[in-house]
Amino acid sequence: MLTDLDLGSLWEYRSSYRRPADFDSFWDSTLAEARSLELKVEAVPVDTPLRTLDVFDVTFPGFGGDRIRAWLRTPRGASGLPAVVQYHGYGGNRGSAAENLTWASAGFAHLQVEVRDQRGGTGFMTRGIADRSTYFYRRVFVDAVRAVDAVRALGSADVAVIGNSQGGGIALAVAGLVPDLVAVHAQAPFLCDFRRALNVCGRPPYTELTTYLAENRRSSVFPTLSYFDGVGFAARAIAPAWFSIGLMDDIVPPSTVFGAYHAYAGPRQIQVWEHSAHEAGGSDDLDIALDAFRSRLEMP
Predict the structure, then answer these.
(1) Which residues contact 3 (CB under 8 A, 6 or more apart)?
(2) What GO biological process terms does the UniProt entry carry, in alphabetical order (predicted)?
(3) Can 229 be counted among the known catalytic residues?
(4) β-bridge partners, 269
(5) Residue 220 annotated in active site
(6) pLDDT tier, 299 (very low <50, low <70, confident <90, very high otherwise)
(7) I need a surface site. Which of 1, 134, 180, 279 has the fewest CB within 10 A?
(8) What is the mean pLDDT of residues 69-83?
C-alpha cells in the first residue's frame, strides 16, 4: 500500500525546509579545516579469488584526521579510470573484498566507503545532536567528501557518487559540497526533509529522533538538523542526478525524496517504482544508473 502521498500530490509537494543563513559558511569552514590536513592515501592490494578485478584496501584521513576505510575495485591492471564512490545504508558496512562487483565489472574504479562506527550499530541519528559542530553526520559528510579527494589522488579525474538510503543521503550531501562531480545516483535517499519525515514516518531510523524528542520535551533537534538536511545540499548541487523512490517505502517517505528532488539545482531525473518499497527498484534501478553513468563518465 502507499505509505505517503499519492503520485500526483508528490509531484506538487515542496518542502518547507529553509537553509540557515550561515549554511554555506559552516560547510566551507568545515571542509577547509578537514583539507588543511595532509591527504595521505594508502591502497594495499588484497588477495582475492577474483580473476578479472583488482581489489585494494584503502585508508584515508576523514574528519579530524581519523582513518577511514574503503575497498577500491578496478578492472585488472587498469588505472586512471573514472570512479564511482559508493556509500552504504544505515548500520551497514563495506562488506567483504569480493562482493558488490557490479561497478568495477562495468569498467569503473569503484570505491566503496565504510561509514565510521556503523557496523550493525544504531543510535547515530542523535549522537552529538545538541550542537551542529558535534553532530555525528558532520563527521560522516566530511569523511564522504574526503573519499572523493582520495579516489582522485589515486588517479581518477571524473568521479560520480552513489548510494541507497543513508548512502543516498550521503551522496546528496557530497553533491552539494563538491561542485565538480560528474553524476549522482540517490536511491531512496535518507536524511532529507527531516520535519516532514518525523511527521509521517513511524519506522527506524527516523524514530530515533522522535523518541529523543519525546524523552527530551524541552529540546529541539531541528536547529542542528537544518545544517544536515538533504534538501539544503540539493539546492547547492549541480551534477546531473538520478533519483529513485518506491511508493511503498515505509522507511524513507517518498515525499521527503521529492522534497530533495524538487530543490535540486542541477539536471535531474527521478524514477518512481510504484510497487517497490525501500529497495526503490533494486537491480532494475541500478541498470538505469549504469546506462546513465556510461554516457556521463568518459571511459578510456
Answers:
(1) 247, 248, 249, 250, 253, 254
(2) polysaccharide metabolic process
(3) no
(4) 242
(5) no
(6) low
(7) 1
(8) 96
Choice among 15, 165, 226, 244 that is catalytic: 165
109-113 β-sheet, strand order:
42-45, 53-61, 67-75, 109-113, 83-87, 159-164, 183-187, 241-246, 268-273
90 annotated to bind ligand: yes
| Separation between Cα atoms, residue 166 and residue 256, nearest integer Å | 13
Q: Which three cell numbers stand for residue 126?
A: 542523535
Tally of CA atoms within 13 A in the half-sphere of 159 that contains its CB: 26
Which of 226, 249, 262, 276 is flagged as catalytic? 249
Q: Where are the beta strands (DSSP E) in the chain?
A: 42-45, 53-61, 67-75, 83-87, 109-113, 159-164, 183-187, 241-246, 268-273
* CATH topology (fold) of 7-296: Rossmann fold (3.40.50)
Q: Strand, helix or coil at 56? A: strand
Beta-ladder partners of 268: 241
Is residue 165 annotated as a catalytic residue, yes or no?
Answer: yes
Cβ neighbour number for residue 274 with a 10 Å cutoff: 9
Question: Which of 88, 185, 262, 278 is the catalytic position?
Answer: 278
